[in-house]
Structures are given as structure tokens and as C-alpha cells.
Amino acid sequence: MRTTVKFLNRTTPPHVITLVLLAGLSALTMNIFLPSLPGMAKWFEVPYALMQLSVALYLALSAALQIVIGPISDRYGRRKVMLGSLILFLLATVGTLLSPNAETFLFFRMAQAVIAAGMVLSRAIVRDMVPDAEAASMIGYVTMGMSLVPMIGPAIGGFLDAAFGWQANFALLLLVGLGVTALVWADLGETATPKDTSFAATVRQYPGLLASRQFWGYCMAAAFSSGCFFAYLGGAPYVGTEVFALSSQEIGLLFALTAIGYLIGNFLAGRYSVRVGLNRMVLLGTLTTTAGLGVLTLLTLAGLSGPIVFFALTVPMGIGNGLALPNANAGILSVRPELAGTTSGLGGAIMIGGGAGLAALAGWLLGSGSSEMPLILLMLLSSLGSVTSILLVIRRARSLGLSP
Length: 404
Fold this sequence. Notes:
Elements: H1 16-31, H2 37-44, H3 48-76, H4 78-97, H5 102-111, H6 116-129, H7 132-164, H8 167-187, H9 199-203, H10 206-210, H11 213-243, H12 248-276, H13 278-301, H14 307-312, H15 315-335, H16 340-365, H17 373-399
Helix pairs in contact: 1-6, 1-7, 1-8, 2-3, 3-4, 3-5, 3-6, 3-16, 4-5, 4-6, 4-8, 6-7, 6-16, 7-12, 7-15, 11-15, 11-16, 11-17, 12-13, 12-15, 13-15, 13-17, 15-16
């Protein structure tokens, strides 16, 4: 049964706006500074590949943290863990602004990954609040609102970089982080019943989850689907600057195209997931992404690529991820709903960890003088992996006599 939600009341579950902003701060932290990466490499006088690690290392630590954030929130509650994570994020953001060299910046940039709690716990809180049938729909609406942030984030970051330098991006993160912390303090009522079990006992639930084919199927579908996007995050700034000779402002604006697609996909997921079903929506999303990347590959091979073609054909990737990820995440959470935090954390760790690997691989593939083709092929292979994963889930469901 639903609990009445009262905005800015710490005794009731949070308003959807709070969940959107929590997840949105995580997304903004990940991508606002991307147009600044080439300029930051010059500022710190280091190779682009080193600064690109600020994406890959951030994702890797996000994955590691999600493994522990979920169980800790099951043990101590969502509110305490979220507020603690936000305070640590604010301290890390101050560190990025005061960094005298690339190594110090990378240290504090990795520390910012604690804000991954916003992504993990927003999903877990949704699962606390609504039953299985509605979880994918609500996650879709939450991430639809969240997609507005990455849609405008790189564009804002590009203009801030051009006007004030890369530090302005992290100053904005600090201000937004302060605002979200105040909102969480005022609105985020506890939605989980803290369990009187040790952290070690909670972690012992992992083998059972990892033995589930259903859990792995949804996780890999989500990991490969989002992996396209993470590879794009790692490689697109280089492609825009070095291959297409675009400015940071232009790259920021073109990044918004993918987010527009994600917004459309999230809206469709929120509207139709309950009617169509989780598995079919994941399959539709992964096929949409694969089709767009297949067209991009063919046009590039034919010598017809350019900045408009490259960035415009990431719109289907955004739509596909918007359709697939809310439903794949709801599928992950359905495996053990009584351990929503733990399940969300472990599933998120697998998904983000795979993304970190692909982001790092994209940076490695795009060496001096490289074209955009290595990045496109990497994204296409990842998308094909997501199609294969959800087809295996559907096959497993049919073999058990369940609805596909």
C-alpha cells in the first residue's frame, strides 16, 4: 500500500522531485565537465589519456561504492546514508577546485564518486514505495526527469568552460550539491525499515544473487546497454575536438542530442512499461540502439560521416537506453525485493563497472591521429551484447513457463 507523500516532510517518503534531483546530481557530476577535458589536459600539462581517466576512474569507483552503499542503506536506512554521502561529495568537490596538479585532481574526482549513492538509493527508494508492477514505470519517470540534467549539463559546461575556465563546472556542482543536500534534509523521510543484521550478514546475500540467471541476464543487458553510452562519454570529447575540430561549446550542445533521445525513451518507458512488460521493453530498447549504431557504422564506412551525422545518430542510442534501462533495473530489483538496496547496489556496480572498462577502452583506442571508427565499433559491439543478454532472459522465462 502506498504511503501518503508530503513534500518537505521528513516523516513521509520523498517527493518525486527529490528523487529526480538526487539522481540528476549524480548524472550532472558525471558529464558536466566533459567538454572541458581537452582544455584541462592542456591546463595541467598532461596527455588527454590521463585526463580521460577522470571518467573511467570515476566510474570504476562508483561501481565499487555501489557494492557497499546498497547493503549499508538496507542496514541503517536510506536517509542517513544519503545525507552522509552528500556531505562527503561536497568536501570532494571543494578538493577538485583547489587541486594544484592532475594527480590531486584525479584523487578528488574519484572521491566525488560517493554521489553514486543518489543513483542507487533513488532506485531503491522507488522499490520501497511501490510494488513490482509499478517500479519500472516510476523509475522511468524519475529518470525521464533526471535526463533533463545531462541534456543541459554538457552544454552549460561548455559555455562555463569558455567563459570562466574548467573550474566553473565544479563550482556549479558545489552550489547544486548544497541545494540538493538541503532538500534531502527537509524532504527525504525514511522508506526502509533498518534491519538488525550486520553488514557482513547482508553481504552474504551476494552469492544467492550471483547464482541467479535472471539477475545476471538483467545486469548484463543493463551493463551492455549503458556501456554504449559510457564508451561515448569516454571517447566523444576526443572525437569532437580532434576529429571534427569542434569547440567545447559546440561539443556541449551536441551532447544534448543523446539526452533528448534518453528523455523520449524514459517517457515511453514510464507510459508503456506496465502494459508491454519488462522484457519486451528492454528488447525494444536494445534493438533501437543497435539499429542506430548500425546505420552510423555504415555511413562512416561509406565516408559520409561528420559531426552532425555522428552526434545525431546517437539519438537512437539515447532512446534505446531510455527504454531499456528503467526496465532492466526494475528486473534487477525484482529478484530480491526485500533487499532492494543490496540488489540495486550490486546490479549498479556490475553496470557501472562495465561502463568504466568501456570508457577506459575508448580512451585507449582513440590515440593520436585516430578516426571516430574505433569508438563507433566499440559502441556497436556493446549494444549487440545487450540484445543477446535480454534474449537469453526471455528464453529463460519461456523455459520456466513465465511471461516473456
